[in-house]
Task: inverse folding
């Protein structure tokens, strides 16, 4: 079966709405994707006909809800290539997953004078948790820089790693630059020095870029809402051997084995890290999203979406007043995400005018202030596409951007 | 006779409502922003910077003849246009007049709901700053 953009688009009722009387062009997919009807249907079904708390109760619906929840764990494990189902921890999103590791890995392995490496291109969610850890443990944050084209300076990595390095935390794809970082190489260097690697997969997961076993990353965190699943869902993958050595992040129901006033023992993985009632209605939407995403592997569809992305890249690159950040070179891939500044026009003005033309873009610092400083800008405009964005939308965007630039000149 | 604060607000509302389309309103705001009196570099201080905007906004004031005179600037032109509207209305009024105003003309123009939340926050911050300057100088 072959797929095209229109057939994908038709599965998203959310895209048919209008704004200010104009067709809505949604180019802010890196912030959150829209959800296909198959996903919203699962969310509604879980809420209306399968709502009971999981794991403990023996009644019928509790069993069904538990099955839906645990089946999703298997689907996620298969989707990212995890070897063991208990390596999949459900979280509320990427930020939760990274904070969990920063706390629990930090408690187990990080002490005074130790070092954590992050890149200069990290989202605040993969930076601030490490800063908090460093404050708590009197450890030190070491920064891996990016070059002018937005590529990580991997050549510097061996010199940044020291005997005190405890972890390297890096995005698979920066939410500003869109460059697919060479994880295999990064992880190989880190592992050759005995340093585990956490990968922020918030932007990578939706482009189906990961197989955790092949990549050999130690942790991989991502959000459901950026990959067509419900908000408030997310996954932390962690290697079993590491997760087993880490203390719980939160205490509460589900995560215990026995509780006495004299002391408590903890549940085995994954329960140890899933304290309290989980997002039980929403977690099964991850499975629905994964099933939806299989259609996106279609070569004909991929060729079509590639053409839209190439058109935008070329139009933006060729514009004399536009500066693009994150320039692919050699064999590096770039996801369909383009951040830019326009000479003589403020990012916020552009975004406001585009909004009134019906186009949703992101503007500002994009939760990456150190990267804005690196490029000496106060903010950028970002467009990020999904496979339901059409060539017609891309052309309308370029025309509208030109008009906005003219208005501001 | 001097126009009252309310008269000026009414004039601003009427001018603004001449434009049906929001894009035209933006064109008008952009023109206003461009024609705003130049802002002295020396006043571009951290203290004069208003927090809560995606763009940077500086607001400074002086008291002359018992009235408050505002000057402002922004790195974004639409914001500058909005500031220009606020200055048209509030600059040169007495502290008592400004402090007594409910700033509802901003709602009547439709600015708040038609700007992004971050921008609306910026607008709210601008108004709060103008109001607190007036209250401090009563």
Result:
């Amino acid at each position: 079966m072959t797929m095209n953009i229109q057939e994908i688009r038709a599965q998203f009722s959310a895209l048919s709405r209008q704004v200010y009387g104009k067709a809505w062009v949604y180019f802010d997919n890196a912030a959150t994707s829209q959800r296909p009807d198959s996903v919203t249907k699962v969310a509604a079904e879980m809420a209306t006909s399968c709502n009971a708390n999981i794991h403990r109760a023996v009644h019928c619906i509790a069993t069904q809800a538990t099955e839906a929840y645990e089946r999703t764990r298997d689907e996620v494990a298969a989707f990212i290539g995890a070897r063991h189902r208990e390596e999949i921890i459900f979280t509320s999103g990427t930020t939760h997953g990274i904070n969990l590791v920063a706390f629990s890995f930090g408690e187990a392995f990080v002490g005074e004078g130790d070092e954590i490496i992050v890149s200069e291109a990290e989202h605040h969610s993969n930076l601030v948790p490490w800063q908090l850890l460093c404050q708590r443990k009197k450890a030190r944050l070491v920064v891996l820089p990016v070059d002018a084209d937005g590529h990580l300076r991997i050549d510097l990595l061996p010199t940044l790693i020291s005997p005190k390095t405890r972890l390297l935390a890096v995005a698979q794809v920066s939410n500003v630059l869109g460059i697919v970082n060479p994880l295999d190489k990064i992880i190989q260097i880190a592992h050759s020095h005995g340093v585990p690697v956490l990968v922020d997969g918030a932007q990578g997961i939706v482009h189906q870029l990961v197989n955790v076993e092949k990549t050999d990353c130690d942790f991989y965190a991502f959000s459901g809402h950026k990959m067509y699943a419900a908000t408030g869902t997310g996954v932390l993958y962690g290697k079993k051997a590491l997760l087993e050595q880490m203390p719980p992040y939160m205490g509460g129901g589900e995560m215990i084995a026995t509780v006495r006033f004299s002391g408590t023992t903890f549940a085995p993985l994954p329960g140890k890290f899933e304290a309290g009632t989980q997002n039980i209605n929403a977690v099964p939407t991850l499975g629905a999203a994964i099933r939806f995403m299989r259609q996106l592997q279609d070569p004909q569809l991929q060729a079509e979406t590639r053409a839209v992305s190439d058109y935008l890249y070329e139009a933006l690159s060729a514009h004399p007043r536009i500066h693009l950040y994150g320039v692919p070179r050699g064999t590096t891939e770039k996801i369909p995400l383009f951040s830019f500044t326009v000479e003589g026009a403020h990012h916020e003005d552009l975004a406001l005018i585009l909004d009134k033309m019906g186009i949703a873009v992101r503007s500002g610092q994009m939760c990456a202030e150190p990267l804005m400083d690196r490029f000496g800008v106060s903010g950028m405009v970002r467009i990020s596409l999904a496979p339901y964005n059409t060539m017609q939308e891309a052309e309308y965007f370029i025309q509208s951007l030109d008009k906005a630039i003219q208005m501001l000149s | 006779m001097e126009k009252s604060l309310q008269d000026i607000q009414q004039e601003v509302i009427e001018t603004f409502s001449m434009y049906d389309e929001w894009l035209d309103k933006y064109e008008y705001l952009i023109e206003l922003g461009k024609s705003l009196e130049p802002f002295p570099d020396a006043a571009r201080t951290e203290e004069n910077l208003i927090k809560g905007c995606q763009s940077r906004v500086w607001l400074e004031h002086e008291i002359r003849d018992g009235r408050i005179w505002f000057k402002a600037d922004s790195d974004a032109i639409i914001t500058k246009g909005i500031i220009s509207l606020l200055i048209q209305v509030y600059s040169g009024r007495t502290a008592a007049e400004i402090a007594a105003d409910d700033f509802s003309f901003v709602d009547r123009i439709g600015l708040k709901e038609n700007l992004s939340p971050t921008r609306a926050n910026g607008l709210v911050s601008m108004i709060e700053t103008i109001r607190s300057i007036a209250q401090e100088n009563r």
